[in-house]
Amino acid sequence: MSHQHVEALDVEAIRADFPILEREFDGSPLVYFDNAATTQTPEPVVEAMSDYYRETNANVHRGIHHLSQEASIAYEEAHDRVAEFVGASGGREELVFTKNTTESENLVAHAWGLRELGPGDEVVLTEMEHHASLVTWQQVAERTGADVTYIEVDETGRLDMDHARECITDDTAMVSVVHVSNTLGTINPVDELADIAHEHGAYVFVDGAQAVPTMPVDVEAIDADFYAFSGHKMAGPTGIGCLYGKGHLLDEMEPYLYGGGMIRKVTFEESTWGEVPWKFEPGTPPIAEAVGLHAAVDYLEGIGMERVFEHEKELGAAAYEALEKEGDVEIYGPEPGPDRGGLVSFNLDGVHAHDLASITNDRAVAIRAGDHCTQPLHDKLGVAASARASFYVYNTVDEIDALLDALEDARQLFA
Question: Which residues are 390's β-sheet partners?
Fold first, then answer.
C-alpha cells in the first residue's frame, strides 16, 4: 500500500485518544500488540458511558419516567447504529445484543440448531474455527444426532475451496465459518462460501469477531444468514456482543434465554414472546455498554474503515517481513496480500511461546501466547502453542522494533 494512506491515518492523534498507551513498565513504554484479544478503549467511548451513568442511568422498556425513556431511546438507537455499521438494512429488527460473539454463536446453535438439526443433517465448520464456533456446534450436534465436518486448511493457511465444495452438500443445514482467522490472519471468502451453502439450501453463520473491528463489513453483500461480533475488539466496551440475523429467520426462531423483558404475555399456563430483537434480550440488558458501542462505531467511522484496514494490513505485512528475515522464526498463515489481515502468529526456534511472551513482557511488549482458542488448528500445525502479535489503529511500524529486540533477548536467554 502507498505511504500516503498511512499518513492520512494520523496515528499520533489517534494515540492521544487512548491514555493507556502512555503507561510505562520499568521505564519501557507500553507496546500493545494483543488487539485480537481485546482492543483499547478511546476517550469518546469512556466519556459516552460515563455520561450515561451520570445523566441517564435507568432501566429500559419498563419505566414511564424521563430517565427510563431516555435510556430506552439510547438503547434502541444503538441497535440501529450498529446495524447500519455492518450494512443491515433492517435496523434493530435484525440486530440482537448479546454478551459477546460466543453468546451470539450459542444463541443460534441452541435457538435454531436444537430445534432444526437431527440425524442425517450436517454442520460444516472449518479447521480454523475459534472454539466459540467449534465447541458450540460440536455440542449441539452431539445432542441432535447431526454430523460435523470440517473444511480443510491447506499448507498456505487458506481454506481448500475444492474441499469446501465437497463438504457442503444437500445434507448440510448450517455452514459456520470464521471471517478472519484469529490465529492465521486469513481473510476467508465468506461470500463465496455463503453462495455454496445457499445453493444446497443451507444457512451460513459468519464469526466476524476479527473482521468487523478491522475492515469494512457488509452483511447483506456477503449474504450471511447470521453474523456475529464483539464490542471489546472494536474499540468498544466488554460485556456486549452482536448477532445479525436475517429478519425472517430471527422472527421464526424461538428464544434461547427466558425471563422478563422478552415476553408479550405471561399467564400461569403459558407465555408468548415479544418482538425481535427484544425476545432474545431477557432481563436487564447491557445498556451502558450499548451506549459505548454506539460511540465506538462513531469513532471508527470517523477514522474510516478502509483506512483502518489499510493501516492494519501494512503493520501485519511489516511484522511478517521483519520476522521472516530473522531466520529462526516460523510464521503461520498466508504471506502478506489481499487475504491476510493485521496479525501474525509465530514461534521462535527453541523457545516456548509462553516463555517468549514473558520475555516480551519484560520490555513492556504485550503479545498473546497459547492456542488462541484454536486447539485443533494448532494440532494440525503440529505445535502446542504460538505467539501472536496483533495490531490496531494506534500501533506504529516503529513499535515492531521493540518486539524484535525482545526476540533477541529470548535468544540470549535460551542460547
Answer: 34, 343
pLDDT digits (tens, 9 = 90+) for 345-404: 999 999 999 999 999 999 999 999 999 999 999 999 999 999 999 999 999 999 999 999
Strands 263-266 and 31-32: unpaired
* 121 and 171 Cβ atoms separated by less than 8 Å: yes
Do 139 and 188 touch, CB atoms closer than 8 A? no
Q: In which residue are the cell numbers 450515561 written?
A: 52
What is the bridge-based pairing of β-strands 343-348 and 365-366? unpaired
Q: Tell me which DSSP letter residue 283 carries.
A: S
Helix (H, G, I), strand (E, B) or coil at 410: helix
In 3D, which of 405, 354, 392, 324 has the Cα closest to residue 34?
Answer: 392
Q: Indicate which residue of 322, 373, 384, 402 is catalytic.
A: 373
Q: Can you tell me the distance from the alpha carbon of 204 to that of 219, in angstroms, rounded to the nearest whole number? A: 11
**Side chain identity at 72, as an amino acid letter?**
S
Distance CA 14, CA 34 (A): 17
Q: Strand, helix or coil at 244?
A: strand
DSSP letters for 41-102: --HHHHHHHHHHHHHT---SSS--SHHHHHHHHHHHHHHHHHHHHTT-TTGGGGEEEESSHH
Question: Per-residue pLDDT tens for 231-246?
Answer: 999 999 999 999 999 9
Respond yes or no: is residue 373 known to be catalytic. Answer: yes
